[in-house]
Each structure stands twice: as structure tokens, then as C-alpha cells.
Amino acid sequence: MDLTNAACKLLLFFLLVFCTSYQCCATGINADQTAWLSVNVSENPPRKIPKTMFGISFEEINHAGAGGLWAELVSNRGFEAGGQNTPSNISPWSILGDESLIFVSTDRSSCFDRNRIALRMEVLCNTDGENICPAAGVGVYNPGFWGMNIEQGKTYKVTFYVRSLQPVELSVSLIGSNGLQKLATADIIDDNVTNWTKKEILLQAAGTDPNSRLQLTTRKKGTIWIDQVSAMPLSTHKGHGFRQDLFDMLAELKPGFIRFPGGSFVEGEWLVNAFRWKETVGAWEERPGHFGDVWQYWTDDGLGYFEFLQLAEDLGALPVWVFNNGISHNNQVDSSVILPFVQDILDAIEFARGDPTSTWGSVRAEMGHAEPFDLRYVAVGNQDCGNKNYRGNYMKFYTAIKGAYPDIKIISNCDGSTRQLDHPADLYDFHVYTNANSMFSMAHNFDHTSRSGPKAFVSEYAVTGNDAGRGSLLKALAEAAFLLGLESNSDVVDMASNAPLFVNTNDWRFNPDAIVFDSSKVYGTPTYWMQHFFKESNGAILLNSKLQANSSSSLIASAISWKNPDNNRSYLRIKEIGVIDPTLVLYFLPMLKYKFLIQVVNFGSNRVSLKVSVDGLDKNSIEAAGSTITTLMSSNAMAENSFSEPKKVAPTTSQLENASNRMNVVLAPYSLTSINLLRKSNIVQVAGCNADLFMSHRNHKLVVLHRTMKLENRREVKVYVRN
Q: Which of 414, 606, 654, 716 would suit a FRET pair with 636, their CA atoms being 20 to 30 Å apart?
């Protein structure tokens, strides 16, 4: 056994364990079942789980972005949602004042070439004379996406463009849900707006109302044109436009990647309504927006290609961009004329990765990001493999992208889990939506997949139907079992993400989802909390484990080890100049505490007695003090969270009294359990080799001499010691 393998004994490990079969008719706790789980941390060879193993998949569905993660408060801010023909529908804008006081229409007079529609207000009343305006004025208001969340003390930036042949006097206000309470207001007075003029004001709220609206009113007779109205809270994440509470929900999952922007949203029912990246970059006022005809709502595309790349960077996750390959749900481009689409995608990659002096890299730089984004993965389409032109189109994209960017990993839509692909790919996309029993059984889906060839990207998985409710515990447990199987097969599965991610409670286009929100509140479903149990798996080491049970119930086991980093560590840097070529960097971490984790899914109605044995550790090496047990459970397998009970089903943690490397743990029915064992040791970490090495100070008696470092009973290594 070499030094690397010996050192693996002392890695921290994270055990993801078993599931019993689901019994839909069970009504109580039956006789206990017993299972034995043994893990040998000294068995070799270790296998590293990809750093990208678990991530998130974002689609513009359920108003996940528009009216959700993207913090813009105004819906249809450019008045383009009603189409390019005028007059047009301005919904959800509404008029303040009757027909004798104001006439509102649309025309094509905007100063923005790609957004020609503007709002025209002909004010018929005045401050005096026969037709006097109401004291509150007349005009228009926008309720946002089912109400704007305005919070006392917070500041909101309102931007709009205005034009008039007469001087203008406009009041810009944030109004409460009763239409009377002024939460914030400011007056705009300008004698010269004959040309389109940009106005920006800051409004600080004097009150709180989650169902507020933005009003633009006047009491001065004349005609006023208004366009591109925006209201953004200044409290977005890093000022990047992301609603902070929703961003935090994502960040807490520690995703290895984020896939965007879909999903069927990428394809469109018709190509004319597909996501076109070039129309989503540059100044927000110049973005035309588009109608997402799959999920049947308009988006102004404030959350565009650039913002998705920025989101990935802010999350510390790798971006996975899904692009349209000339195929929608109802029409497609023939491979003989696909090259303009191919060039469009090469331009997009240059936008993300190109030098700031390049054609498209300069556009990114002008948007405030001179440094390239870390784009390494692209997916050619979404669920398009069965279309007649897919393979022909795919090969045109593949050849062009690999020719220009050979390091980029390309994802095919065709399933390679049961047979080899007939075309080159780095990964293949795999989607599964099914009931709880089927999802549980699919934990073994990749057991017999060929160990050569492209790896799987399970970009969409979810339990649906009656088992799922609107996000049940049962759904989460079945999905956890599936993830255990993916983790065990992480030599052929590179990435996995649940879908859909978000839902605005006012627009359940797809059910269920991981995170539910409205204008002011948010909660995670059990599926969201289940994913927390896997967030330490990225980059961990898969260990050998064996599971036995005294019943016919199906059991699944997975064991991993993971490192718990200590940001306050002191260290010696040592360069090795002796028998091994690579430079060794040694970190000395006195009395470092680190964790062993055992995670268990009980998918049935039986209580299970789990007898755990961990081989390869010193006797009594586990500290009871500081060891904990965390459980996701409920007496009702169909239990769900809600705004009134946001953590009805959420992880709870308590101290584990009998913590040791030989112990018994009782698992509640319908539960996901994490057993956190604490160990204390002096260790030295050796980095700079092909793997991280951990050597125990107690076990190997590290001695540092003038130019020689000896590991007792091991080889001698010459070193150069520097403070």
C-alpha cells in the first residue's frame, strides 16, 4: 500500500446510506427491522466524486426569474408585452382616472430601436378651468408581479423615460395596496422634455406593504409619452439585481453548477419565441423582451445571458449554458442552413470567455465585467434528440465549438445510459419525472451503464403526480434514494440537479418545485431541505460500504469522505527536493476537529435499527461531545411546508449520545437522517500531489530534522524547511 492509500484512512468521511421500500398502505409502525452497515476506510482504490456532482437547474418557469429571482418590480416595463401592433394591450398597467379625464394608448414612438412601443397619456383635465383633475391626479399604475414588496426604510430606484411637447409635472409614488397610502413619493418637474429624457429618482419607503404598486400621475393638461419604467430595490445581492432572500436560498445549497435558462424555455413552442441570447445583453432599456410561449408569459429579459453568468459567479458555481440548436416544439431548422445559428453560439461563447477587446468580449466588458466568465459546459438543445434534424444540427455545433474551444465540454440530448451514443459528446443529458416508487427504484439506473464513453448529466429529476403533492416529504425521500444511487455511480454520472427550482405561488405552471415564494416571503419544500444533505458531496471521496438487512426490503448504501476546511489554520510550507519530483506543501493543523457523517434514508413505514461499524479507525477515536444527529422527518409522509408553516418539514439537530465507531441508531419511519461524528486529531496535510494526503501525528510520529523528514515505518523524504 502506498503512502497515498494509507493516508486515505484518515480522511473525513460522509456516508450516504440506505432506503427501505415504500409501503403505500402501511398505517403504523410495524415490527422493527434491523440492518448492518459496515464501512472500511482503508479499502482501495478511492474514487473522487466530481466537484460538479450536485448543482441547480434554473428555468424561466413559474415566474422564477421575472417576478422572482430577478428583483425588478415593474411588470411589462417597456409596454412591449402587448405586441408590436398598436394600439396594444398594456396589462398589467392600469389607468387612474375616467375617460373624461385621461386617454391612454400606445404608439411606436420610442427612442429604442428594438423597443418601439411607448405609452401615450393624453391628460384632458387641469389644475383649473372647467375640467379639474382630482387632487391625487390622473395617470397610470403598475402592480408588479402580484404586488410589489415595499419595506419601510428601504430605498428603491425608479427609472423611466419621458417626452412631451409641454413642460411636465409628474408625481412618482409607491402606493399601498388600498390605493391610498403613500409609502414614498417624489415630483418630477421639467420645462424641456421635447426629446426623450431619462429620469432617475430614489424613493425611501415610509411604510411596508407586500402588495404595493408604482404610480405615475399628473394634474397638468397635455400629452406625455412614457417608456421603459423600472423600479429596483437597492438591496439586491451585490447590486447585481438578484432578490437577496431567493439568492440566499440557492447559496445555502453550495451548488457545484447552475444550468440555465431551461428547459423548454430555451426551445419555445415556436422558434420565433425561443430564447435569443443577443436580445438579452446590453443596456436593459434596449432589450426587446419576448413571450415565452411554452409557459405562457412575457419576460422583459432583464435576467439575461449576462446575468445568468454573473449569477453563477456569485454562487461560486460553474455555468452550464443550454442553447437553442434550431429546434422548437413545433418547427426546426434544417441542418443544411443551420450555420448562422452555429455562428450565433460561437459569438455567445466569445461574449462569455473572449478577451475584452474582442467583438463580443467588449460588449461584456462594457457591461462591467472585463474578466471572462468561467464557461466550461454547453448543452446543445433540450430534450431534442428525437427530432429529425437534431443529430445533423448537433454535429455542426459540436465541430465548430470544439474547433474554436476544445476545452469546452459539450452535452448531447441523447441518452447514453443504456447504449453507446452514435455521435461524440463529453456528457449526455438525462431527465426523469416519475412517481415515488419508480424514482426509488431508479437508484440503480446507472449500475450497469458502460464505464467508458460520455458521462451522464442528470439535469432534471423530480417525483411528480399524486406522490408529490405540492412538495411532500415522500417526494423528497424518493429523490434522496435516487441521489444515493447517482453518488454510488459517480464514475459515470458527473452532474445532477432537481427541477423545477422556483415557483411564484401565484403562477404554478409546473408542480411541484423546490422553492416557493411570493413578493415578500419564501420557503423551501422538503425537496429543498433534502438537497442540503448532499451539499458536502461535491469533490468528496467515495468509500466502499456493505449493507445487510434481515428483511426483504430494498436497501441502498453509499459512503463518502469529505474534508472540513479550517480557514484559521496555521501552517508550514515545505518544498520537497528529495526522492519525489512534485513539490509538497504541508499544512500543520494542531488539534483539528473534523466530522464523520452517516446519512440514512428510511423510505418505509417501519422503524429501522441500524448497526454501524466503521473499520480502519482507532478504537475510541470518536468524541461523543460535539457529535450530532440531524433528521428530516414527519409522522405524515405526505407532509408539506407552507407560508404559515415554512419549516413544518425541515432538518432538526440534537446531540448524539452514543457516538462511536461501533454504534446503533434507530431510524424513524419516513426519514432522512444525518449522523455527525466528531473526531479530534493532529494531522499534516500534504498537497501538490495527485491526491490530498492526510497523515496522523499520533499514528506516524512525524519528525522534522534539518534536511530530513521521517515517517516512522515509512520512507525517508528529504525536505527544505522554511517558516
A: 654
Residue 496's contacts (CB-CB under 8 Å, 6 or more residues apart) are: 53, 54, 55, 457, 458, 459, 461, 483, 486
pLDDT over 70 percentage in the chain: 83
Q: Which residues contact 386 (CB under 8 A, 6 or more apart)?
A: none
User: Is the separation of the CB atoms in 401 and 345 below 8 Å?
Assistant: yes
205: cell is 419607503
pLDDT at residue 117, rounded to an integer: 97
Residue 73 CB neighbours (<10 A): 26
Mention every residue, 6+ apart, whose C-beta is less than 8 A from residue 567. Answer: none
DSSP for residue 248? H
Q: Which three three-digit cell numbers place residue 77? A: 416595463
30-63 pLDDT, tens digit each: 447 888 888 777 766 778 999 999 999 999 999 9
For residues 428 and 456, is the Cβ–Cβ distance under 8 A?
A: yes
Phi, psi of 502 (to 5 degrees): -120, 155
C-alpha cell, 188: 418630477
* Distance, CA of 476 to CA of 462 (rounded, Å): 9
Instruction: Tell me how far CA of residue 432 lies from CA of 498, 544, 634, 656, 706, in angstroms.
Output: 10, 27, 26, 36, 60
pTM assigned to the model: 0.87
Q: Residue 116, Cβ neighbours under 10 Å: how many?
A: 19
CA–CA distance, 266 with 60 (Å, rounded to integer): 9
Cell readout for 273 is: 419565441
**Alpha-carbon Rg of the chain, whole angstroms?**
29
Instruction: Give first-to-last CA distance, the chain, whole Å.
Output: 32
CB 156 within 8 A of CB 184: yes
Helical ranges in 354-445 per DSSP H: 361-366, 390-404, 436-441
Please choose, from the candidates 442, 484, 678, the residue with its C-alpha nearest in 3D space to the C-alpha of residue 600: 484
69 CB-near residues (< 8 Å, 6+ apart): 58, 242, 243, 246, 247, 303, 311, 502
Q: Is 25 helix (H, G, I), strand (E, B) or coil?
A: coil
How far, in Å, are 91, 438, 722 from residue 465 at the CA level? 33, 12, 63
d(CA 383, CA 330): 13
**Per-residue DSSP letter, 406:** T
Q: If 0-12 CB within 10 Å is exposed, 13-18 middle and 19+ buried, where does residue 191 land?
A: exposed
- Can you give the length of the chain in residues? 723
Q: How far apart are CA 463 and CA 373, in angstroms?
A: 34
d(CA 554, CA 557) in angstroms, rounded, equals: 10
19 in helix, strand or coil?
Answer: coil
In a 10 Å sphere around its CB, with 0-12 CB exposed, 13-18 middle and 19+ buried, how is residue 47 labelled?
middle
CA distance 151 to 165: 36
pLDDT at 450: 95
d(CA 522, CA 68): 10
CB 142 within 8 A of CB 104: no
pLDDT score of 407: 98
- β-pairing, 671-687 vs 662-667, is unpaired
Inter-residue contact 463 to 439 (CB < 8 Å): yes
- Residue 262 CB neighbour total at 10 angstroms: 26
Cα 230 from Cα 247, distance rounded (Å): 21
Question: Sign of dihedral through CA atoms 460, 466, 470, 471?
Answer: negative
Q: What is the dihedral of CA 91, 96, 99, 103, to 10 degrees?
A: -60
Asked whether 28 and 569 are in contact (CB, 8 A), the reply is no
- Residue ranges of E strands in 486-544: 493-498, 502-504, 515-517, 522-524, 541-543
The CA distance from 53 to 56, in Å, is 10
